[in-house]
Design goal:
The complex is a heterodimer of chains A (about 160) and B (about 450).
Chain A: H1 3-25, H2 61-64, H3 74-81, E1 86-89, E2 104-112, E3 115-123, E4 129-136, E5 141-144, H4 155-164
Antiparallel strand pairs in A: 1-2, 2-3, 3-4
Chain B: E1 2-7, E2 14-22, E3 25-32, E4 34-38, E5 45-47, E6 50-54, E7 62-67, E8 82-86, E9 98-104, E10 111-117, E11 125-134, E12 136-137, E13 141-142, E14 148-154, E15 168-173, E16 181-186, E17 207-208, H1 210-213, E18 215-220, E19 227-232, H2 233-238, H3 248-252, E20 255-260, E21 269-277, E22 290-297, E23 313-317, E24 325-330, E25 346-351, E26 363-369, E27 373-377, E28 385-390, E29 400-405, E30 408-413, E31 417-422, E32 428-432, E33 438-442, H4 445-452
Antiparallel strand pairs in B: 1-33, 2-3, 3-6, 4-5, 6-7, 8-9, 9-10, 10-11, 12-14, 13-14, 14-15, 15-16, 17-18, 18-19, 19-20, 21-22, 22-23, 23-24, 25-26, 26-27, 27-28, 29-30, 31-32, 32-33
Classes of the chains: A alpha+beta (about 160), B mainly beta (about 450).
């Protein structure tokens, strides 16, 4: 490989990095990010559960909007939203198990004019938020149609997809 | 099937439940995936570990205690697996005591297996760390009448090699739970430290048939490139010189039979049933009119079926151990139910592992993720019939599962029945991976008649 080609590759790498950083400064891509969660919860929203999935009074929409898909780390999310109501990790990203799903999920409970919901944030193996979804309790579904520039498969997903092919 | 009772397990993602008749009390022990959540009993946020629930009154389960899992980073923690033995049954246990064997961590730098004294299930106390410094743990087996424990584990420094799931067996004598005694390491040939080349897949969780049958059944591969191995228990426990670095010959010595599965299916659970009479082969045949059967289950791994085929369960004829052979398939069709669009995983995961006579040789009860609990009448293993199912409803604790398909990301709350188990009263317990809770079920109709012994084969 010639010196020129190496220089060109290095420039391309830096351009890609700069482009990535500029994307990170743009606003977040959040599935179904609508409504106002800033007002305090008036009541517990869980029926029958001991753990009490309560709406989180600290969950402010302006802070949720600051989460940048593909850029914000778990530390960033915690500084914006506080401690999550629940974290879950299926533990298969590191075991070499056959799986496709993301592994670590953080959840916050919220309440807006449409009712109670869960803010669902999935992190990849690099601790970057890759999916941020507001999931209404009423439907249990959040979808982001068309192109989703925020989503990138994590390393474990890439390995699993390669193995599948 | 119908719902009898429910406990939310504090909202923690559940892996494996077992239900123990503990001196007249029915206690459910539930292992959890990694995570953090407030324990309402203490008011503290605790890393997911093991839940202990009194289910004596199945209509009103009472959550007794949460034993926290490993603290710190949650990305490889949790205490997914549980086994319990009575000190009155263990050869050198203390009569009247009860002991919990659990994994401590899943796939991190310092995982372990440990034993708790759970004689008072509301106040468990840690007794022993059997082995630590592990890189992996998973679903172990503990023979209560001998104390032999087959721990799924791996210790990187010892040089064992696996593809896929990075784990093999570490076998211990836990007949005296306070003084564990190491016996040996074992896996498929090609995994021992002196081997070369691409190693075979790691084990998921063995089941021993004990001294009576002298066999251990070992499924490898979890959800792909599956292998099932039938092992002579006595040779496994004695026919070797170097317990950590066995020779190739010592690895093969206990192997009685092995079957490579389709690469699309893995070995997740393998449950033996001996001497099943075959209804259609009773009149004119003078041999093989009863068979030894192995229920072999693969594990689905993809949300919304994206990137994989259906994962199934199989009935194998293992009467000729050197040539195990599939004779039928247990499957749940995608429709009706539209399961690939319901969210989360759809497919097989695990079969019950209890030998209670109400179910043994009659029913195959298998967790099927978003298709819930699935039950087959297997009294004719060549022609199994699905006779019951129960799909719990998601609730506000249910964790959504997301999938990105053709650049569309969808997150859906769906039930993810991870493991299912039975108790000695005939009740069925479904634990949810998605944090929904523990559902206690009972059979109705034809399935109930089979469990209670009132239903005969239609051809009889």
């Amino acid at each position: 490989m010639s010196t020129k080609m190496i220089d060109a590759r290095i420039r391309l790498k830096w351009l890609a990095l700069a482009f990535g950083l500029s994307l990170c400064s743009m606003s977040a891509s959040i599935a179904h990010a609508s409504g106002d969660a800033s007002r305090p919860a008036k009541r517990a929203v869980n029926n029958g559960a001991q753990a009490g999935a309560r709406a989180d009074v600290r969950l402010k929409q302006k802070n949720v909007a600051k989460i940048k898909v593909g850029c914000s780390t778990d530390v960033d999310v915690k500084s914006l939203l506080g401690e999550p109501w629940r974290t879950t990790n299926y533990g298969e990203a590191h075991c070499g198990c056959y799986h496709h799903d993301m592994q670590e999920v953080w959840e916050y409970r919220g309440l807006d004019s449409s009712g109670s919901y869960t803010l669902h944030i999935e992190f990849d193996d690099d601790r970057l938020a890759q999916i941020v979804a507001k999931i209404p309790d009423r439907s249990g579904v959040a979808a982001r149609g068309g192109k989703n520039p925020g989503f990138k498969p994590g390393a474990a997903q890439k390995r699993a997809l390669r193995a599948e092919r | 099937m119908e719902l009898v009772g429910f406990n939310d397990l504090q909202g923690r993602s559940a892996y494996q439940p077992i239900i123990i008749n503990q001196d007249g009390r029915e206690i459910a022990y539930v292992g959890h995936h990694a995570g953090n959540l407030k324990n309402p009993l203490t008011g503290d946020v605790e890393p997911n570990g093991t839940s202990l629930i009194d289910v004596t009154d199945a209509r009103r389960p009472s959550y007794l205690f949460h034993i926290p899992g490993p603290a710190g980073s949650i990305d490889a923690a949790g205490s997914q697996m549980v086994r319990v033995c009575s000190g009155s049954v263990l050869p050198r246990g203390i009569p009247g005591k009860w002991y919990l064997l659990r994994s401590h961590g899943n796939a991190g730098p310092d995982e372990a297996h440990e034993i708790y004294d759970v004689t008072d299930p509301a106040h468990p106390s840690r007794l022993t760390v059997i082995v630590d410094g592990l890189s992996n743990t998973h679903k172990s087996w503990w023979e209560c009448d001998t104390g032999i424990a087959y721990l799924v584990a791996n210790k990187l420094s010892e040089g064992w090699r696996q593809s896929g799931s990075n784990q093999h067996l570490k076998i211990y004598d836990l007949s005296d739970p306070e003084h564990p005694a190491y016996i040996r390491d074992f896996g498929l040939v090609g995994q021992e430290p002196s081997s070369t080349g691409n190693p075979p897949p790691g084990i998921h969780g063995p089941i021993s048939a004990g001294t009576g049958k002298n066999r251990v059944y070992m499924p490898y591969g979890v959800g792909a490139n599956g292998v099932v191995q039938i092992v002579d228990r006595e040779k496994l426990l004695s026919d070797f010189t170097d317990p950590v670095n066995p020779s190739r010959e010592e690895m093969l010595s206990p192997q009685k039979g092995v079957l490579a599965m389709s690469p699309d299916q893995g070995g997740h659970s393998a449950f033996p049933i001996y001497g099943m009479p075959i209804p259609e082969f009773q009149q004119g045949f003078d041999r093989l009119n009863s068979r030894d059967i192995l229920i072999l289950v693969s594990e689905a791994g993809a949300n919304q079926c994206f990137g994989e085929g259906p994962h199934l369960a199989f009935l194998l004829d293992i009467s000729n151990e050197s040539t195990p052979w599939p004779i039928s398939t247990l499957r749940v069709p995608e429709f009706p139910g539209d399961f690939c669009n319901k969210g989360g995983r759809f497919g097989a995961h695990a079969v019950t592992e209890s030998f209670y006579p109400q179910f043994y040789g009659k029913l195959a009860i298998i967790s099927w993720f978003n298709a819930g609990v699935r039950v087959w009448d297997i009294r004719d293993p060549f022609d199994p019939q699905q006779i019951a199912y129960f799909i719990p409803a998601p609730n506000q604790n249910t964790i959504a599962n997301c999938a990105t398909i053709h650049e569309v990301t969808t997150c859906k709350k769906a039930i993810q029945t991870n493991n299912v188990e039975v108790d000695d009263r005939g009740l069925v317990y479904a634990a949810d991976r998605a944090g929904t809770g523990l559902h206690i079920l009972r059979f109705t109709g034809r399935a109930r008649e089979i469990v209670e012994g009132h239903h005969e084969h239609e051809d009889d």
